[in-house]
Sequence to fold (99 residues):
Amino acid sequence: GEVMAFDTSIMHSAVNESDEVRYILMFRIWHPDLTQAERDAIQFVYDCLEMPELLSEDAGTRWMAEERVKMARLFPDVGESTSNGSKKSGFAVEGRGKK
Fold:
């Protein structure tokens, strides 16, 4: 296969017109010139894309969404310990099953 990397911060579209499966590894890296306030604002946009309830007019719905975002940020540390001392996750975001 081929490997390609590109900056997705520029509006673009991508289409797989082949009959073969294409795998995408996507991750976010903050530009070093962004201020903390800019990072926080962009993170809020990402959070809203993942959890649209953050924009709810209902305070209870919004609070629950905020709590779910907090839990997602703690995800690596959430869970019960197994017999060998490692952590076993007990958290799954809606739409994403536990593995």
Remarks:
- The beta strands are 80-81, 87-88.
- Residues 87-99 have pLDDT under 50 and may be disordered.
